[in-house]
Amino acid sequence: MRKFKSLISILLSIAVLSGVAGVGQSAKAVNPVAQVRNNRSFEYGPFVSYGFGIGDRSSYKFLNAGVQAGKVLTPVIKAGPLSGQFEYGANIMPLWQAYTPAPHTQQYTCISGGLPVSCMLQTGGGTFRGVSITPVIMRWNFLSRSSRFQPWFQGAGGLIYTTHKFPPNFNSNVALGLDGGTSVWNFSPQGGIGFHYFVKEKRSIGVELNALHISSASLGDRNPGVNALLQFQVDYNFWK
Which CATH class is domain 31-239? Predict the structure, then answer.
């Protein structure tokens, strides 16, 4: 009986030690970042972003929401501390909104008799709604030693359509020979940094900060644009 108890104790000890070793090996084996890197995975998921203008557009606020997708294209390219992989992506935003000051009177410089003079003109404003697509997102995923944390930086270019001409400008004044029309089409070159944090295998939360410029490329009569805005984005990603 005593030998039997001793044998049971030895077997239990072996089982416990084997289990601990197995857990350690499993934990070590599950490395979501390495899986994405080695499989050159495809990602997709929803996102929401909030932004605000800088400088003379500091009163502008932006809210966007949509879905995005991307595909890791290359193996790891060695470049010292900048080693990493290229990823191509795109997104679409069915919700694109800009919040600007309400319509008001604003001072401008007009031309009278061939000379510049100060004048007060009625200026548009309010909430602008539209959609946006960013068909080109070129992202560099840094080679990460972490099993959860994947940092990156990117450059991208997008297109915005609004139901009214954006950004708001002074109303056209035929008497003064002024046309303040902008455009319902605008371009949005941008760049940013961010990271994925893998909450589990093939699932991650993304956080990013982008700097954008909005311009119609003179598609309208005037192109005041939004010289710069900062945009914070949070997304949830599925990986395959």
Answer: mainly beta
